[in-house]
Amino acid sequence: MQRNRKVPGDFQALLIEAKLREFRDPIEKLSYLRHMAGTASGRGIRFISTCFRVALFALMLFGFRIQTVTDANASFPREKKKADKFSLQQSQPIIPGTIWLVDRGKDYEVYSNSLRIENRYVTPNQARSYVTFRPGQPPDKVSERSSQPAGIVLHTSESFQAPLAPDQNDNLTRIGRGLLDYVSRHHAYHFVIDRFGRVFRIVPETDTANHAGNSIWANQDKIYINLNHSFLGVSFEAHTGNIDQGCYLSPAQVHSGRLLVQMLVSKYNIPLTNCITHAQVSVNPDSMIISYHTDGSGDFPFQELGLPDNYSLPVPSISMFGFDCDPSVLMATGFRMWKGLLLANEQLRREAESQHIPLGQYKQKLRERYRTSMATLKTMGVIKEN
After folding, report:
1. Least crowded by CB within 10 Å, which of 63, 111, 207, 276?
2. Does the pLDDT at position 18 exceed 90?
3. How far is CA 348 from CA 56, 134, 273, 308, in A?
4. What's the pLDDT tens digit per position in 344-384?
5. How much is the pTM?
6. Mind listing the pLDDT tens digit for each residue in 230-280?
7. 101 to each of 29, 104, 206, 266, 354, how far by Cα in Å?
8. Which of 93, 149, 113, 104 is nearest to 303 (CA)?
């Protein structure tokens, strides 16, 4: 018998199945499956993929009970902290009105927290105006109209990346300029933070930007649908494909991102829980799957930007509108969004039980509510087809 011979797929699957029986904690079981997915091949991979999907959906939809929102962290094992390429002190709480404009020139602004914004690429768009819904109200009834930014969607550009090194200056500059030209033409974000930490305003905060597409977010008293109109879009020139290297933002980007978030939260009195990543809000209405766009779905440095770990917030598209999650998204980008996903599914399950409705039937009811809300916004002319 050759020692280095690969274990046949069927036998490998049996070994994995036997090992799974040793885990009682469902999170440990799923983590083991993900680890094995990186080492298995052939039938073993297919077996792992099947196990993963079954275990995750069972965990989400049936068996994993979470007591309260504040107990979420207790349900998860401590994560091993990756070695950061930089160290930042925890930011102080952001107080509205404490950051102000200090200086303004033809193409720049400087704020009291040292934030500098470049205005060379500004392109005005449609004036901001949106309506919100209230939880518990009929989906064809809007609550109020507003033009004030309600939150921030944090993006990564997912554009081509050159190594961040001195001998790459020409490439970095050329690529960055190309990105700024592109997003300016398409009114894609309100702000872009390049690899060197420079902050560029693209669309004025008074206007909408085409950054979120089909999207959902909510807090205790307001539901926001299609966040182009209600939230600001801030994009970092980065690629989440670099997630295995730790934080995929440069130290300069994190520093400038923290200053920009401070200014926007202070100026517009934005709740910190309304500062979330694109993956948390993005949805596909055709398939009723969340995270249609996956930027920011794993290891986004919330705390380094002065924000709470908003991955722990229940995902409203699941709990309020019955959307589903594709496990392959989590396998590809990390598991930190699990906390919010599990909390949302637990809320969904308990609400269905309280109304004595089968879970599948209850989700269909919520999905119809979403479709009615979308139709209401389109009839009002508030949103157009994406």
Report:
1. 63
2. no
3. 16, 18, 20, 24
4. 989 999 999 999 999 999 999 999 999 999 999 888 877 76
5. 0.78
6. 999 999 999 876 555 556 889 999 999 999 999 999 999 999 999 999 999
7. 51, 8, 16, 11, 51
8. 93
Residue 33 pLDDT class (50, 70, 90 cuts): low
The tokens of 151 are what? Answer: 């939150």
- Directed axis angle between helix 338-354 and helix 359-380, to 10°? 100
Give the torsion through C-alpha atoms of 270, 386, 155, 31, to 10 deg.
Answer: 110
3-class DSSP assignment, residue 46: helix
DSSP 154-194: EEE--------SGGGHHHHHHHHHHHHHHHHHTT--SEEE-
- Of the candidates 201, 186, 268, 260, the one whose C-alpha atom is nearest the C-alpha of residue 231 is 268
List the chain domain ranges: 9-64, 101-380
Pick the CATH number of 101-380 from 3.40.1160.10, 3.40.50.1860, 3.40.80.10, 3.90.550.10: 3.40.80.10
Could you read off the pLDDT of 321-352 as tens digits, one per residue? 999 987 776 666 666 677 888 889 899 999 99
Asked if residue 172 lies in contact with residue 195, where contact means CB atoms within 8 angstroms, the answer is: yes
277 phi and psi angles, rounded to 5 deg: -90, 165
Q: Over the Cα atoms of the chain, what is R_g?
A: 22
pLDDT at 158: 85
Backbone angles phi, psi at 73, to 5 degrees: -65, -25
